[in-house]
Design a protein that fits this description.
CATH class: Alpha Beta
Order of helices and strands: HHHEHEEEE
Mean pLDDT: 88
Radius of gyration: 21 Å
Largest sheet: 5 strands, mixed
Structural class: alpha+beta
CATH topology: Nuclear Transport Factor 2, Chain: A
Low-confidence stretches: 15-27
Distance between the termini: 66 Å
Strand content: 35-45%
Length: about 160
């Protein structure tokens, strides 16, 4: 093998190893991680049929794990803001108990990561549809979410409903 070809192959191998090392040690970029968090929230919120109170509570606790310990969350008009992770879990458990099915989607995502790299502003359209008491229900609104990276994990700090 010619030295020039060998050097090119070594360079390519080094570049590939460096890329994978970067991915392993530095992780994904903030925007991708926040998008993954939103995707996981959609999956956790999904309710396809009857579930026990224990199952509802388990899903609610998982969802509440996506916020800081003392968040500020405005979910629905007329509802008092939620100010703790436990309060959020309780509200979500109660809500899941009132619906037979539920699907939540976060669309029209706009993610703006601060220059510091540890805070982000996210604008989304949150849509929920499901069935409660034998009737189909749906809700959709724009939300402004503030996220913060805490110990390597992106968590929600604040959620505010925006006027359409």
């Amino acid at each position: 093998m010619k030295p020039q070809v060998r050097n090119i192959l070594i360079g390519i191998a080094i570049a590939v190893v460096a890329y994978f090392a970067w991915q392993i040690f530095m992780g994904e970029d903030a925007e991708t991680e926040i998008n993954h968090q939103l995707d996981r929230l959609e999956e956790i919120a999904l309710k396809t049929g009857k579930e026990t109170t224990f199952q509802s509570f388990g899903s609610a606790k998982k969802a509440a794990g996506f916020v800081i310990e003392k968040p500020y969350i405005e979910l629905l008009p007329g509802m008092r803001p939620i100010d703790s992770r436990d309060s959020l879990a309780g509200a979500l458990t109660a809500s899941r108990g009132r619906v037979d099915t539920l699907e939540v989607n976060f669309t029209n995502r706009s993610i703006d990561v601060a220059d510091s790299g540890d805070r982000a502003l996210v604008l989304v359209r949150a849509s929920a549809k499901g069935q409660a008491f034998g009737e189909k229900q749906s809700y959709s609104a724009k939300y402004r979410m503030e996220w913060e990276e805490v110990d390597g994990e992106w968590l929600i700090v604040r959620v505010e409903r925006l006027d359409d």
